[in-house]
Amino acid sequence: MTKTIPNILLIYTGGTIGMIKDPETGALRAFDFNNLLDRIRELKLLDCNISTTTFDSPIDSSNMEPKYWVAIAEIIEKNYTACDGFVVLHGSDTMSYTASALSFMLEHLAKPVVFTGSQLPIGDLRTDAKENLITSIQVAALQHYNKPVIKEVCLYFEYKLYRANRTTKINAEHFEAFASLNYPDLAESGVHLKVNNERLFKPNARKELVVHKNLDENIALVKLFPGISERLLTCIFNTPI
Questions:
Q1: Which domain holds residue 221?
Q2: 3-state secondary structure of 49
Q3: Which of 16, 94, 98, 167 is catalytic?
Q4: Which of 6, 31, 87, 159 is the most exposed place for a label (fewest CB within 10 A)?
Q5: What is the DSSP letter of 56?
Q6: What is the CATH number of the domain that holds 150?
Q7: Is residue 20, in this structure, part of any structural domain at all?
Q8: Domains of the chain: total
Q9: Which pLDDT tens digit goes with each residue over 72-107?
Q10: Per-residue pLDDT reduced to its tens digit, 21-54
Q11: Is 16 a known active-site residue?
């Protein structure tokens, strides 16, 4: 069988990973992803073709909302046939929310969608952005007999690949910012990239991708605690949710 070269689409939505610091002023500005291969030459060592697309206006993690989830899903839908995998660059604070939502919006997904970001801008000397970016692309490009190895929405951060809808951000200061507390990691990056195949989601690849775009935003998250009052719950449930 002739090996094909995977086509990977890099989708930049915003966040710290896409920032670069001006060496003269110290001000942060958006990185030009059209020049990605020129700035990060290590990407040329990857056995895949990389194309990029960016939001017209990068979205700060704190401003992420469902309409942008739909925009990401539509980009994947539009390029689904032409691409073998997708890497979504996103602010880390709300990345778990977006990645989890996409895992349900992309029904019958049979290709990798890997979310990643960084704690430091891509232009910083000690940045974690390059490793997260390079390995995320490598994960998205993994193939076995010309078929993707990963077939679900994942989140990669600091040497670990997680199932997206099992992740939570646990630290804003450390590079190990995410954890999957109730499901083991899918892969680990070290000297070798070790994939735990028995933990991967195995969809029915014969079914076509269905993208769900109608989202109801009238929801509330209620955290129960000892002593919670009926009056508080009544106030919540009397609103149109």
A1: 7-237
A2: strand
A3: 16
A4: 159
A5: S
A6: 3.40.50.1170
A7: yes
A8: 1
A9: 999 999 999 999 999 999 999 999 999 999 999 999
A10: 777 777 777 777 777 777 788 888 999 999 999 9
A11: yes
